[in-house]
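step 4 of 6: structure.
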Amino acid sequence: MKNRWMNAKWLGLITILAAFASGCGKNHLSTLRPAGEVGQEQFDLMLLSIIIMLFVVIVVSIIFTLAVVKSRRKNLGEDFEPKDVAGNHTLEVIWTAIPIILLIILAVPTVYLTFKQADTQAMENDDGEVNSEEIVVNVTANQYWWEFEYPNVDVVTSQELVVPTDKKVYFNLQASDVKHSFWVPAAGGKMDTNIDGINSFYLTFDDGKAQDSNRLFYGKCAELCGPSHALMDFKVKALPEEEYDQWLADMKNIEEPVQAFADDAAEGQEIFNNSCIGCHAVTPTGAGAQGPNLTNFGDRELIAGYLAHSEENLINWIEDPEAFKPDNKMTGAYDLTDEEIASVAAYLMELKVEEGSGDVETLRESAEESSEEESTESGEEEEEASSEPSEESASDSEEDSSESDEEGGN
Amino acid sequence: MASTAKKQGVGSVIWDYLTTVDHKKIAILYLIAGGFFFVVGGIEAMMIRIQLAVPNNDFLSAGLFNEMITMHGTTMIFLAAMPLLFAFMNATVPLQIGARDVAFPFLNALGVWLFVFGGIFLNLSWFLGGAPDAGWTSYASLSIASAGHGIDFYALGLQISGAGTLISGINFVTTIINMRAPGMTYMRMPLMTWTTLVASVLIVFAFPPLTIGLFLLIFDRMFGSSFFLVETGGNTIIWEHLFWIFGHPEVYILILPAFGIFSEIFSTFSRKRLFGYSAMVFATIIIGFFGFMVWAHHMFTVGLGPTANAIFAVATMAIAVPTGIKIFNWIATVWGGSIEFTTPMLYALAFIPSFTMGGVTGVMQAAAPADYQYHDSYFIVAHFHYVIVGGVVFGLLAGLHYYWPLMFGTMLSEKLGKITFVIFVIGFHVTFLIQHFLGLWGMPRRVFTYLDGQGYNTANLISSMGALLMAIAVIILVINIIMTVAKNQKVGRDPWGDGRTLEWSLPLPVPYYNFAQIPLVRGLDAYWIEKKANNGRMMPSESLEDFHMPNNSFIPFVMSFGLFVAAFGALYFASGKDWAIDAVSGLNVHPWAPWVLGLGLAITVGAMITRSIKDDLGYYVTKEEVLRDLEEEERRAR
């Protein structure tokens, strides 16, 4: 008897869970399918609060329904005179105390997790420099694209963030034009990219969960940032640590732009060097550029963050970016004929990073060296590292110097 | 009878309303203007839902969609919900406390005209180069970058209508503190009056931060300052703080009067006094107080740091306690009562579960780390619509049916009212329940479209269907209003039969001077007491004598019009100037702009000087006239 009841209970529970799971959205972009520690903790907190709140809703609904059903005038008669009750002290205490207890149950893990998830001390070493032992990514949000810089190895990429799994990935977030917000729903909550200063937080990507979603998660901009806000998507490739290191080494290996192979692509490269390179770099350097870095464009999953990766789409995009991403900064920045666009597209599709071309060991050593150098003689080193100092960094240093001038004057 | 009974030409009626200082007529002005903007905001909402019904839709362009969402939010909050609440506050509060008018009738008229001109100015943006497109929150980095004059319309329009709101808030605080009838102690005031008092205090403290924020924005965009320009030392986060220091109390400014309306309705149609009256009053005050302590929960993801986030998380959770007290007290009021299912009571009953759901999702968001996921997703959209529609709009619809006889002397059709109710409530839940899940599935808010294959299609279609139901319900409501006005079937004193508070003791239509003799209030639910213990007539607190009333005035209209004109001058001031921000420096130069700005300000200042110099001492209503009215009322009653 008891056994059967137990079975029925489990069956019921499983059915409910199954129904719940089917309503949990997609693996690669749902907050209800957490793919890492941060997302999991937030999901658990959500579950706890949902349970408490469902309890509240159910209790209120039951009392409310009883009250309404009991007190219908139709049943009581037109002449029924309800007794006027001024109030009840005991009841007031009960329905003040119980919510307070429920809220304390919710408040304790809330405060704990708020502090835990804000702990990004490991990002910096004792000197306030970027810690070369940790995975750090500088994210710059721009009107409608994302730039990702790996400061420890001086590699810059855009639109597709590559991260190692099973390791904390620290992010420095900033926007270059207007406020955006960096959100990878499956990995964890969002944080704003302000234009006033840098925000830092971390996410983790579980290797098993990454496999469940083909190692590709969706990222979104979560703060209204202009007409194409809805299309400001990016992708997150979560690779095992060795593959991630290899990818970095491969990227780092590209010091000169990859030479075009096919004839039309070679033509395209020339056109690109005349018309496009002012904004788009094809070597993984130069953070803070005007347009997305295209070093590994041929390897990407999507064009403009959301179109399928085909040459046809690429041609359409270059012909009229405004039709795809209204208000983008690329429209009208160049004047190319249809043939020229086709050549450029052919060239861009060839921009692939050869797998296994880089040496992980040298990368690691150089990273450690550079961080040591940086800590000893900071400043000058950086300028050498980035071949094209961007306008922003230039203006930054100008500001710095003017500030120090002022200080001197004072 | 008063002048309303006389046959009047259309012209003189319009003139009467343009110059009125009578709180009952001002209530009608608020109702008409607020109702109009409610429909405008509703049409914008439908546009949004049509665009989002299917993926990759191109019904609206991306830019136009952003203008739609901005204007929908701004219109609904500032030009629909608040004025409609002011309509009911004006219609009831002076009557509930036994006053002949508000403390400052002239300011009351100024408030309504400022709101009307501000609202018109804001909506003219549609025809003059594009509406604002940075969201109703108008976060500074985007609103500075937004090209064209849309944001200028937003800043100036809200500044003008905000001034009207602030003036009305001050007026109500003064009225409720000073104008109560003998015996109407604070702890005998009906809940509607209490919530109006607290909401008005919130207005007085919450609107100045908005005014400051808007002025900084106006200076930046129109006069070349750089409060929000980071490259010249500004800071955009300041805007977020200023906006939300206003924005969060604003939520309570909206919901508290709705709580007041519901409290009146629960007790009236349960034939029972409000359970735990003093607990309700203190809960109202505590909610108002805490409302100022929690603004940063809108900014959990801004990066304020864990200490600020933790403090604001816990403070936000604390607000749930007084709100819970209110919910349970309302249920206890219904419990053991004798419920009559009138249309207002149906809205009030539907409000309890709907608002509870909006409330609990609010507590869920107070858990900051979880909010990192909810923030700026459709979960938030679902939450605040549950609060604002399930709380405020239900309250407005309930109040519309409940107070309609008090305002117009006729009754809205109960049958059509109930049809509206059923369709609206179903439509509301269909639209917004599913949006919680959309947010959890990773759909950000304020997106003009979404891609196919992300699992958002069905849910969005369902949501749009629900919106259609709500639109149908509103159309039926409009038909109901038109039919009621056309039929014009007058009702008499206490039309609901169970009126408890002072306003229902008055003959309908209410005389322009409200009370022939100021009544004596002998307890909570003053009219109910006299019904049970007396002959159902309020006892007078004074002998019948001549009394003083204020004159009508056209000056408030002129004053507001002057600011309306000046706003155009300010708007085009920076167009095409070298020193202006990029967003407007490329536009055509308007050399007349400073002159228009000066002209408008001259009109306003001139009106103010006229008001100051001209003696306007009001007039006396004679004892004879009041006696005549009383006799006629007696005759009609027989």
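step 5 of 6: annotate
 - Confidence is low (pLDDT under 50) at residues 1-5 of chain B.
 - Residues 7 and 13 of chain B are 10 Å apart (CA to CA).
step 6 of 6: archive
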